[in-house]
User: Fold this.
Amino acid sequence: MKKLFFLVLVISLSACEGNSQNNSTTPKPKSTMIDKVEKTDEEWKKILNPEQYEVLREKGTEAPYSGKYYLHKEKGTYVCAACGAELFKSDTKFDAGCGWPSFSDVIDSTKVVYTKDKSHGMIRTEITCAKCGGHLGHVFDDGPAPTGQRYCINSVSIEFKK
Ligand code: FE
Assistant:
């Protein structure tokens, strides 16, 4: 009887192992492959200015038409102001008339995380930086072709690189 129990135990364990081996061959979503930047609130406060901290770490929103990149038209790349991850290209930037820098696409969809946001009595899709978790803005489906997307981004959350 003891032998039978031992045999069942061994079979069960090897079945589990088999499962875990199968799982390890399943490709992981790309977003989990990004080297994450994790810092405490105190560490972020040392790196970010108060306005950046409020928007990036506390999900604030800069006043419309106030941001330094709202009407910015130079050719280059916009990176996350907190961690430097490349997020948007200037050739996808357009004037949506909404008062914030707007882009029709992100450089790579794995660079951002999309989260349903039910705050302020609205249902929106929040965009955060996949690398550092910083709040960037929201994405709406009223943008220009071909994507039809409007990434509405706070100027303080991004930095321009020529
Ligand atoms: Fe970031």
User: Anything to note?
Assistant: DSSP finds three helices and nine strands in the chain. Residues 80, 82-83, 85, 129, 131-132, 134 surround fe (iii) ion (CB under 6 Å).
